[in-house]
Amino acid sequence: MQALPSILINGIASAMILYIIAIGLSLTMGLMGFANLAHCVFACAGGYAAIWAMQRLGLNFWLALGFASVVVALLAVPIERWFYARLYGASELDQVLFTIGLVFISMATAKFLFGSSPLNIAIPEALQGQVELASGSIPAYRVAIIAAGIVLFASIWLVVEKTPVGAQLRAAVDNRRIAEAVGVRTDRLFTFTFALGSGLAALGGAIGAEVLPIRPSYAFDQLNYVLIVVSVGGLGTLHGPFLAALLLGVGDTVCKYFLPEFGAFFIFAAMISILLWRPSGLFGIK
Question: What are 181-228's pLDDT values in tens digits?
């Protein structure tokens, strides 16, 4: 029990990484109705971009995070316009096959450019220490990840709830046809949302690269967890994936610590139970 605070902090830190990556997928799937199984490709790209920027361009940790997020968001714009937009009206099977193909292409590209060895990001010296608790100490970087997740959650909430773009986004999620009828340019809104979600995924991949090493198979490795967070939290919501990430991240960490023989049993059992109870997720629209 003395180790419980440290376990909880590690679980919450893992949850924040999952949330930062997953929130973009929740919005894009809720808005576009697109089965984007390649979302974690952008998180992987963000991790590689941040590490490359620090090693080759000499950027510090903070600038590398911004560099990765902006570059991936900008690259997402032509990808959305040239490829994703062509499949908005296609069947879910076509969308799944396309995005899975994109995952395989990204894996081969990453292996060719960066090799097959996992890479970790070099965190700044100020975050390499320990934070002392009454029952022990925890890594300072885990605390920083938690703080970043909370700040991002609050920032995204303000954008979605308090800005004109957020009002258009909420209207399109609730009823796309009515939103278009009153003049909302959903094509531009789709592109903006896709770029924003991809940039957030890149930020999550870069921030979490110290906890979840970046490797060519990263997009597949994290796909299950991100999809579980989105499906359990509910499509098109902000607080749903946040609470789902906390529930599953902390539960998974605690279960693996006290019952390691069960592995990831908890997270999948919890997903099945919740979706049997609420098929649209905890806060999803029925």
Answer: 877 787 888 888 889 889 999 999 999 888 888 999 999 888 888 888
Q: Are 201 and 21 in contact (CB under 8 A)?
A: yes
Contacts of 261 (CB under 8 A, 6+ apart): none
**Between residues 103 and 135, the one the model is more confident about:** 103
Examine residue 214 and state whether it is found in any structural domain, yes or no.
yes
Reduce the DSSP state of residue 193 to 3 states and report it. helix
Radius of gyration of the CA atoms of the chain, in A = 19
Distance CA 212, CA 267 (A): 17
Query: How far is Cα 3 from Cα 136, in angstroms, rounded to an integer?
Result: 7
Q: Is 115 contained in some domain?
A: yes
Residue type, 215: R
Can you give the residue range of the structural domain that contains 55? 4-119+138-277
Average pLDDT value for residue range 160-185: 78
pLDDT tens figures, 15-34: 898 898 888 888 777 767 78
CA atoms of 127 and 118, how far apart (whole Å) = 21
pTM here is 0.89
Tell me whether residue 18 is in a domain: yes
CB-based contact 232:273 (threshold 8 Å): no
Backbone angles phi, psi at 283, to 5 degrees: -130, 15
CA 278 to CA 16: how far, in whole Å? 23
Kindly state whether residue 189 falls inside one of the protein's structural domains. Answer: yes
Contact (Cβ atoms closer than 8 angstroms) between residue 196 and residue 76 = no
- Into how many domains does the chain fold? 1
DSSP 37-80: TTHHHHHHHHHHHHHHHHHHS---HHHHHHHHHHHHHHHHHHHH
Sign of the dihedral through C-alpha 153, 228, 5, 65: negative
